[in-house]
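Appendix B, example 12.
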Amino acid sequence: MALVSIPTSTLINASLKNFCYYILQPTPPALDKLRQVIVQHILGACANASRVSTSSIVRNHSSFYVVSPAAIQRQITLWRQELPQITPYYAVKSNPDSRLLNKLHMNGVKFDCASGREIQDCEAYSGIGIAVAKDILFANPTKTESDIQLAAQRKIMETVVDSPEEVWRIAHSGWRPNIFIRLTVDDMASRSPFSLKFGAERHSWKSILGALDIAGLKLAGLSFHIGSASSDATQYRKAIELCRKFSYETKRKIDAVDIGGGFMPETFKDSATQIRSAIKDWQMNGLIPPPLRWIAEPGRFFSSVTHTLYTNIIGAKAGPGGVGWRYTLDESIYGQFSCIPFDHQRPNWVRVGGNRVERGRGFLFGRTCDSLDLIAYSETMNRLKEGDWLCFPGMGAYTMSSSSEFNGFPRPRVYYQDEGWVEPGKIEIEPGVIFPIETKSSINLSLGDIKN
């Protein structure tokens, strides 16, 4: 995948300011011009790239991303406004884009890493190399031996456990980090609950603390995760209250609390209100000393709104029985729409140049040779035609990071735009859309309501 930075002034016969203008002006001449601009934009990027191979030129007629630095900055500002007392550690897994990592780090955001590879990515892209170790939390509660050794070599000093077994694994390696204990919390209202896999239940608290004491490892604090995309902001309050009870029951002073992730941009302010209130309650409680340090692990909060995906219809044919249409999109469930089966996302889209009046049954397939590569279906889908371009905003989280190049189809190019870029903004949801292919567990991934 090529990562190319193209200022608008270098594009051939077109700029992205014009590109966006024609998106917002859906007249027929504008649509014709827009198609020219898209092609010129892509070819112009190739012509101005420092390293372009023949194969990269061939593939540049397909999908591409536009990343907005302004959107990244807005999320940083919003976090500081709503949760100024909490230091964010960006969950790299949501999108390890190099420019995103660099801009976040340059604005004081630290990193939540789950593997040795993510640690190395942060070192490479943060702009300051190995010195970034002090800004990394190795937050995976179960780590491989090789990753533990890498963390020790890089002098990373904070990690997470949720069992005495993990304490002993770390102790036997010779690594001496400070330890966060991850607690099991109520995550029933989350779209992607974690409590079946991660977290220390109440009955294991003392055994973990005992292992830390014997191993001579320092308790840094507590952590939790209410699950991804929670619909109940009060889960944060309940989890913070559980941390306070841990301190009371175990007679241990808690210096730091990691409130995890799961923040959705659209519900962030409600969650922040609950979090601020719970922290204040702890501070007002004179029986249990409050933590002096609060951190979090936001991922999609920072990444989701930063990327807009542009992709085109490469085929259109009559639907089954001659009713409606079957469209093939130059992307797939195996590619950027992996966010549908693995992250339960529901991507919205709009046709570049404006939607047509005609509607009817439509199947939106991906480009692979797998019949399961069905992105979306609707009985009232906007009529599309071969050559149409579709705009999918908000595609920055769990898209590129979970995608593959199945069937030999490459990942999209990524373009970073200067401040002249005008973003597509919020779009209307395509009515009646069904996303039929998603991964669902046959068992409940949540342990249920954790009684406080």
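Residues 1-37, 45-60 have pLDDT under 50 and may be disordered. The first strand starts at residue 3 and ends at 5.
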